[in-house]
Amino acid sequence: MKFQLVPTEFRIFLSGIKKITVIANILIFVFLTILAFTNSWQTVVSFSVGLLGFFFPFMLLNCYHDKICRYTAKFTDHSILVYDENNRIKRTISYDDITAFSIEDVEGYFYGFGEKPIYKYICFYLNGENQIPMVSYAKLFSNKSFFMINYDDDAYNEFCGAFKKTEKL
Description:
Elements: E1 2-4, H1 8-37, H2 41-70, E2 72-75, E3 79-83, E4 89-94, E5 98-107, E6 118-126, E7 146-150, H3 153-165
Antiparallel strand pairs: 1-2, 2-3, 3-4, 5-6, 6-7
C-alpha cells in the first residue's frame, strides 16, 4: 500500500492555487490580446503586470511544492520506497540507515505567512542524525539525513510491521 507524503489538506490547497494561477494566466493573456486591438495600452499593461505580480508568488509556490504532493511512499521488507507521480522510484531509504523514528508535529509549508499549520508526520532520522534539519519544508523530503511521511495510523502500523521484521524495533 502506498501513502502520501503530505497531508490531504495541503494537496487540496495546492490544487486550488493551481486553478487560480491558470485562471490568472488566462486573464493576463486576454488583457494582452485586448491590448493588441485597443489604444488604451497603458491601462491593459498596468492591469496585466499587476495580475502577474500578484499571482507570480503563487505560481512559484505551486512549482516548488507540486512535485512533493504527488509523491507516495511504500514500506517494503527492507526499505522505504518513494515514488513520483509516474510511479518511478525517486528515493530508497534502507531500514539499516534509520537511526530513530518518531511521530512529531512539523510546521507546515509556508514559512513567513502568518500562522504556520502544524501536522503530524512520521519522522525518520537517518545516518546518525537525531534532529529535524533546519531547511525549508520542501527540502525535508530530499534531505540525506531526514525523511518524513504524513502521519496516518495505517502508514504507521505498516511501517512498524515492516521495520519489526528487520529486528531493529
